[in-house]
Amino acid sequence: MMVLWRVVRLPRNGGGVAGRWFFFFFFLPHPPPPSRRLRSPSQHAPAQRSRPAGLNPCAGLNKSSGGGEAASACERWQPDALAQMGWQGEMTSDCDIRNTVGNIPMEWYQDYPHVGYDLDGKKIFKPIRNKDELDEFLDKMDNPDYWRTVRDKMTGADVRLSDEQVDLVHRLQRGQFGDINFKEYEPYIDFFSSETMIHPVTNRPQDKRSFIPSLIEKQKVGKLVHAIKMGWIKPRKPRDTTPQYYDLWAQEDPNAILGRHKMHVPAPKMRLPGHEESYNPPPEYLLSEEEKLAWEQQDPEDRKLSFLPQRFSCLRAVPAFSRFIHERFERCLDLYLCPRQRKMRVNVNPEDLIPKMPKPKDLQPFPTTQSLVYRGHTSLVRSISVSPTGQWLVSGSDDGTVRFWEIGTGRCMKTVDVGGAVKSVAWNPNPSICLVAVAFNESVVLLNPALGDRLVVSATDQLVSSYEEPEEAREQPVQWAAPAGKEHDAGHRLHLAHPKAVRQVTWHSKGDYLACVTPDGGSHQQVLIHQVSKRRTQNPFRRSKGLVQCVSFHPTRPFFFVATQRHVRVYNLIKQELSKKLQANCKWISSMAVHPGGDNVICGSYDCRLTWFDLDLATKPYKVLRHHKKALRGVAYHKHYPLFASGSDDGSVIVCHGMVYNDLLQNPLIVPVKVLKGHAITHDLGVLDVTFHPSQPWVFSSGADGTVRLFT
């Protein structure tokens, strides 16, 4: 046996005691005989010897330091010599460890440039790893084993995983067992009861105590019986006869601050006294004798005040309050019996409640300024209409005259006296026909003003005079007559005598049909439709539901709009049936206008409302505007611009931007843009009718002051 020794001094910053010297002795056996050296290392696996990890007996020994015997002993410990001794596996694994810091946490040296100390007490510095991102990328591209290379924290070197190790990692990631030969679903073998044996496993006879009563149990039972007799033990507890009720709030702490604050609803404060409760109230708060009598006759629940206001000369003259106890009692009843409700207060920005509307200057053009005033009528002007060319304007007044104006100059071109208060005028919308329908009393007169193109004027006269009476005359509700003489020279072309007073006339877009409204004509003759070319009149309704206010034709489709006091009915003239019934949600409809597209309708009412209907959306109003202070008398759409206007008895005309989109999913945009004033209120009447210029963004208005005004 050979003995090796070494002296080691641990440094102060090492893992041991600073400044101490330690002696290590190694006892080496002699080399095994040749017969043992010829064996394979696997045969010596059970007999392998162990030694401390991290200690290399050959470290620091050479021929100069230890002598020849020690050097020869160290030579025996070299890998080649030890491999012959059967220590090949152990020496190979230990000698591969480059640093001998031991099994210590690497976090201790995380902030230091070294990773530990060797056997000589010298620092083992960390390997230099100066690879940047570019080097890492190049290594990833060039090195085919980059994906299977890991860094060893102990040695700091890059280790390439073998195929077996990679397969082990994949198996663990898939949740499988590490050993590939392990079978987790092997058939279960019941090795104990799978084979029935003839003889028992043990043939030992039973003990005597297994069939003899136990003496210890007898003593225990005797003690329990004695305790029951003495009353020390109650075998059954006596039942509680008192009824038990479930306490809903048993688990709640009545002193919990959070619960009391969470459920607390403060009582409403009493109303503060007003001037009527003063001992010297103002005179307007004192009741007269009639008011006192009416107050006494009312029920206590219907009285606004529960007491009579009284006046005293001074405060010391005020007597005691006789109802003090009663009032306090009622207050206590309110606090005790009246349920309280917590009102969730929503903090809303007032600006968020205002709809986001575009600025009016971005919606131009629209009329903003009064340009012309057409004067000449001596009474209120009820109706106006513009020619389809946009050059002429006709107005009808209660003074019995119909005046024709030139729009550009304001000059009155012609005046026709019809002999009665004119209720409605309507210019034929067909540019090839020069006819104006005038309604007054029980008659409707078709006038040819002879203005504009002479060819159109002569063609109109020829169209009216070319009528030939049919052989079989049908009975009609009105009488058609062609005037002659002075009336023909004045422009009268046809007279239609109705049984009752005519309130409104309106033309079809093609200019051949004329609709008249006679509200006093009974339930079966309130609406009449006349065909001028054939001089034929028809009554489309057998019976009208409600009092008809106004009618209108659809601009492009065969629909007919009839407005009663509270509803607007849409009839299909081809199918002769009711198509829709619009609910205006107002008390009394005064006027109506149909959008040029035909899918929207506006109605004005006497209760200061303007309702917009979207026929594709619903039968109820899409928008209700209440920007007028008094009754609305007239509404109108522009034929080309997205504008509509309304005139009211407050003397103002409000122009609104009403954009209707082709996209059916987008609702119309309604923005009030301008308030036009100029008419004087006469006999509580203001603006009576409004209409737009056919091609320009101009609006005309007629009022009770006898004037017609143009706003541009």
UniProtKB/TrEMBL annotation:
Answer yes or no on keyword Repeat.
Answer: yes
GO function terms (MF aspect): ribonucleoprotein complex binding
> What are the subcellular locations of this protein?
Nucleus, Nucleolus; Nucleus, Nucleoplasm
Ranges where the record places region Disordered:
35-64
Q: Which GO terms describe its biological process?
A: maturation of 5.8S rRNA from tricistronic rRNA transcript (SSU-rRNA, 5.8S rRNA, LSU-rRNA); maturation of LSU-rRNA from tricistronic rRNA transcript (SSU-rRNA, 5.8S rRNA, LSU-rRNA)
Cross-referenced PROSITE patterns:
WD_REPEATS_1 (PS00678), WD_REPEATS_2 (PS50082), WD_REPEATS_REGION (PS50294)
Which Gene3D superfamilies does this UniProt record tie to the protein? Answer: YVTN repeat-like/Quinoprotein amine dehydrogenase (2.130.10.10)
On subunit structure and binding partners, the annotation says:
Component of the PeBoW complex, composed of BOP1, PES1 and WDR12. Within the PeBoW complex BOP1 interacts directly with PES1 and WDR12. The PeBoW complex also associates with the 66S pre-ribosome.
Protein name in the entry: Ribosome biogenesis protein BOP1
Originating species: Denticeps clupeoides
